């Protein structure tokens, strides 16, 4: 047994398993989880605990799983790759295993843009297949993903995966994808919700053809439709769902929609149970868990297997003694009894403290040897104050405090009860404020032994106390008057000092004004003297300051390092700086055979020529527009001022004067939110550019999926045998444009919004369509320098590492970076020249060149840029790094 879980035992024994699903709440209410677990208990063999499903923040899967386990229901913990990197995932896996959780379902996870935090950053350090492989290695080989050994207590988990039989392009393809998950460690599989049993049967036939039904336990996913609207929504809006018309008709004709939904679910369970290779069902009734027992009962699955020798362990220990629920009256009576006992103890403590204080006083009196008359006089003088000296008082107070604290702990008193006890005991009143009776006078000296000691009467002279109070008040008044006079004296002194400082400042200001006036007169005199002299010869005049002119378009070549790295690092082992890569980037050809260019093909990180081959250097395409731009800054527009009205002439100038290796024509005029130029008219202008230049051409749409589809199709019908690259393809138009590009064998650009998973998904969709990835370039969405470039860089870096080190075939395609348009719309490129931020044109050139250098370091193979000087700088950098 791999984990010994209940689910594993049922599946390996050949029993038909039933699993359910439990969605944790969007709060910390543990009782919510417990209630759902009680509804499912006895009806399912295990229950999936979702991990922030649909990217909405919820209670963690592991926490909810522990609560479920405590209710006697075995959980299947879900873990997605969206929210954790591999460090966090391995940590959570170890923690889950340590807490007694034995089943783990590995998922890639819904993209965060679909949830309640769309601005959050998805991690996607790996996908579900890689996660399966990592956990399998931890379990079977006792190794972390980095290769470090797990010395003991490796996580023994029963591993699951998800499969969608209806995602396309065919059942055979989906079965082959499932085979990858099985090869990476999947022990059981839960499928997407099934309504089309016929298609599911074909999928299972493909699974059996590959022999997967003997290697993995497949649980068919089912859910009861609760309403007609729910069924229609799943049919039209949920990707990978195939809801048949028959299901919708049954729901429409039913009087009790919920009951009919349960019947539909039961019918599907009965049908899939007859299909060879189906080992169980996974009932997904989130927020309708109460329907699960009824579904299981009607399907004839109510009697679940029981293993007496291995009961479900409880995650949290139960209290053995019964919990006694007392009424409020009984609790109050018991509290009163406890408090009364505590008060009695407090009185004893205070009495002991007083006795201890008396002992101190008696000891002090015997040592001092003062007579009875003197002692009486002292007691009268101290009437109304403490009878103990400060040391004695503090010791008694500390004794009382310690005693009361001990009482609080012993009787379990609340803070309120303890306060009441303190006030009742009256310790502070006795020791701090209460006037005390005078102690008995010390015995007289032996010579006067016949005189009996007389105890002084209690101090009750109210007149004396009143006089003492009046004297104290008078003393306080005198002190207050003295303090007031001192404050007034200090304020007067400060005012005097401020006046002196003010006069000094005025004098200094007057002196400075005199100096300025004298300098001004001297300058005027000098100027008048200069006007009297004859004018200097014309050739000796200083030339007028010319308008700032940017540097020349060309760029100097970088100094080359002649000694290879192997010589420079001869004393360092190669293993310290070289890495072997297992993948390679596909090579894509743009343009016709005679004048085409190749991008991609490397088997190493960018410019790491000491580690692998980089057969094709990165290329640069000049960006032109199909209409004259009115928002370009003069620092950029002046280089194309004479040709901006004519896209053909513009493209030719880029090729002939600036040495363009490729041209990208941006169809900005077709934007429905802008000029909304008709697709046919814009296509003719683009076709003229394609026909009149020899370098490869990229046609970049306006970004509106529907309009781009029309425009790009029009262009392909006008350019004949010319090969162009079509861009951008997104999830909204990849089918139409992808089919067109496939038909004419054009390369294409797959654009996704700065996300590894979405980039990979779009490539998968294109491949499912029949497109060869040899003709695809990835546009990861570019941010300019200072405008999100770190996000772009991070995503590109992760894509490239996955392609080279993890052999992710779906990401082994070149990058295209349309950075010119992003840079030149930044405000820094439009601000005029000034002393603080420098020349406007130089600033824009550097922003574009530095952005391009960042993209090159991240793996960019084809740059789309605008300023010829920035292009020259980037070419110089590429040549310096490649040669």
From TrEMBL:
It comes from the Bacteria. Residues 589-828 form the CO dehydrogenase/acetyl-CoA synthase delta subunit TIM barrel domain. InterPro entries: Ac-CoA_synth_d_su_TIM-brl, Dihydropteroate_synth-like_sf, FAD-linked_oxidoreductase-like, Mehydrof_redctse-like. Residues 343-393, 484-533 form a coiled coil. One of its GO terms (molecular function) is methylenetetrahydrofolate reductase (NADH) activity. It catalyses: (6S)-5-methyl-5,6,7,8-tetrahydrofolate + NAD(+) = (6R)-5,10-methylene-5,6,7,8-tetrahydrofolate + NADH + H(+). The keyword Coiled coil applies. The keyword Flavoprotein applies. GO terms for cellular component: cytosol. PANTHER family: METHYLENETETRAHYDROFOLATE REDUCTASE, METHYLENETETRAHYDROFOLATE REDUCTASE (NADPH). Belongs to the methylenetetrahydrofolate reductase family. This is Methylenetetrahydrofolate reductase. It comes from Thiovibrio frasassiensis. The lineage of its organism: Bacteria, Pseudomonadati, Thermodesulfobacteriota, Desulfobulbia, Desulfobulbales.
């Amino acid at each position: 047994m791999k984990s010994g879980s209940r689910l594993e035992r049922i599946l390996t024994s050949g029993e038909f398993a039933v699993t359910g699903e439990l969605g944790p709440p969007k709060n910390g209410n543990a009782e919510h989880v417990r209630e759902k677990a009680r509804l499912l208990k006895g009806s399912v063999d295990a229950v999936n605990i979702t991990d922030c499903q649909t990217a909405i923040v919820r209670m963690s899967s592991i926490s909810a799983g522990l609560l479920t386990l405590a209710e006697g229901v075995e959980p299947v913990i879900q873990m997605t790759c969206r929210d954790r990197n591999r460090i966090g995932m391995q940590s959570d896996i170890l923690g889950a295993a340590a807490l007694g959780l034995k089943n783990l379902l590995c998922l890639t996870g819904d993209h965060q843009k679909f949830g309640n935090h769309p601005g959050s950053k998805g991690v996607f350090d790996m996908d579900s297949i890689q996660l399966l492989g990592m956990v399998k290695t931890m379990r079977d080989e006792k190794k972390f993903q980095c290769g470090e050994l797990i010395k003991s207590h490796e996580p023994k988990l029963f591993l699951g995966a998800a499969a969608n039989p209806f995602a396309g392009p065919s059942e055979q393809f989906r079965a082959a994808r499932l085979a990858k998950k099985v090869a990476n460690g999947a022990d059981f599989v839960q499928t997407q919700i099934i309504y089309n049993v016929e298609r599911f049967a074909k999928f299972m036939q493909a699974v059996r053809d590959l022999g997967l039904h003997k290697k993995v336990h497949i649980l068919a996913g089912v859910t009861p439709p609760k309403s007609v609207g729910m069924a229609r929504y799943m049919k039209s809006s949920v990707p990978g769902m195939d809801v048949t018309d028959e299901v919708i008709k049954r729901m429409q004709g039913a009087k009790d929609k919920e009951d009919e939904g349960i019947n539909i679910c039961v019918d599907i369970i009965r049908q899939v149970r007859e299909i060879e290779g189906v080992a169980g069902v996974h009932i997904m009734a989130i927020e309708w868990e109460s329907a699960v027992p009824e579904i299981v009962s009607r399907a004839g699955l109510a009697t679940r297997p029981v293993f007496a020798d291995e009961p479900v362990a409880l995650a949290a220990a139960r209290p053995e003694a019964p919990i006694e629920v007392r009424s409020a009256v009984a609790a109050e009576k018991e509290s009163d009894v406890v408090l009364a006992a505590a008060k009695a103890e407090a009185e004893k403590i205070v009495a002991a403290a007083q006795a201890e204080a008396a002992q101190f006083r008696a000891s002090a009196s015997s040592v001092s040897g003062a007579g009875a008359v003197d002692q009486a006089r002292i007691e009268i003088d101290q009437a109304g104050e403490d009878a103990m000296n400060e040391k004695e008082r503090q010791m008694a107070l500390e004794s009382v405090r310690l005693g009361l604290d001990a009482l609080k702990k012993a009787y379990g008193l609340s803070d309120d009860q303890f306060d009441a006890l303190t006030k009742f005991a009256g310790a502070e009143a006795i020791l701090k404020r209460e006037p005390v009776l005078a102690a008995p006078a010390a015995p007289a000296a032996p010579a006067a032994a016949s005189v009996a000691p007389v105890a002084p009467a209690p101090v009750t002279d109210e007149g004396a106390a009143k006089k003492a109070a009046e004297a104290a008040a008078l003393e306080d008044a005198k002190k207050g008057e003295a303090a007031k006079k001192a404050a007034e004296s200090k304020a007067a002194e400060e005012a005097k000092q401020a006046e002196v400082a003010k006069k000094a400042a005025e004098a200094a200001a007057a002196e400075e004004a005199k100096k300025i006036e004298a300098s001004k007169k001297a300058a005027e005199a000098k100027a008048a003297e200069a006007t009297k002299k004859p004018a200097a010869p014309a050739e000796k005049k200083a030339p007028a300051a010319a308008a700032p002119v940017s540097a020349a378009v060309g760029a100097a070549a970088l100094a080359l390092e002649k000694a290879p790295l192997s010589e420079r690092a001869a004393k360092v082992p190669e293993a310290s700086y070289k890495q072997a890569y297992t993948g390679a980037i596909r090579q894509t050809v743009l343009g016709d055979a005679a004048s085409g260019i190749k991008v991609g093909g490397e088997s190493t990180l960018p410019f790491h020529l000491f580690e692998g081959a980089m057969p094709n250097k990165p290329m640069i395409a000049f960006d032109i527009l199909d209409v004259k731009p009115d928002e370009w800054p003069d620092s950029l527009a002046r280089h194309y001022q004479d040709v901006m009205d004519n896209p053909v002439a513009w493209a030719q100038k880029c090729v002939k004067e600036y040495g363009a290796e490729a041209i990208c024509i941006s169809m900005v005029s077709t934007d429905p939110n802008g000029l909304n130029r008709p697709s046919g008219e814009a296509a003719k202008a683009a076709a003229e550019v394609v026909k009149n230049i020899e370098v490869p051409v990229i046609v970049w749409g306006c970004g509106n999926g529907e309009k781009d589809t029309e425009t790009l199709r029009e262009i392909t019908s006008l350019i004949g045998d010319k090969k162009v690259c079509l861009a951008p393809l997104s999830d909204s138009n990849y089918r139409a444009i992808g089919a067109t590009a496939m038909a004419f064998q054009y390369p294409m650009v797959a654009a996704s919004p700065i996300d590894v998973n979405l980039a990979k998904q779009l490539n998968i969709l294109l491949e499912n369509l029949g497109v060869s990835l040899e003709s695809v370039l990835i546009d990861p969405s570019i941010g300019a320098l200072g405008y999100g470039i770190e996000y772009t860089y991070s995503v590109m870096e992760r894509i490239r590492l996955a392609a080279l080190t993890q052999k992710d075939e779906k990401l082994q395609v070149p990058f295209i970076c349309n950075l010119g348009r992003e840079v030149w719309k930044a405000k820094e490129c439009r601000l005029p020249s000034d002393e603080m931020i420098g020349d406007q044109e130089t600033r824009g050139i550097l922003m574009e060149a530095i952005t391009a250098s960042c993209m090159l370091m991240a793996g960019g193979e084809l740059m789309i840029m605008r300023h010829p000087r920035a292009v020259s700088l980037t070419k110089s950098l590429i040549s310096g790094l490649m040669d």
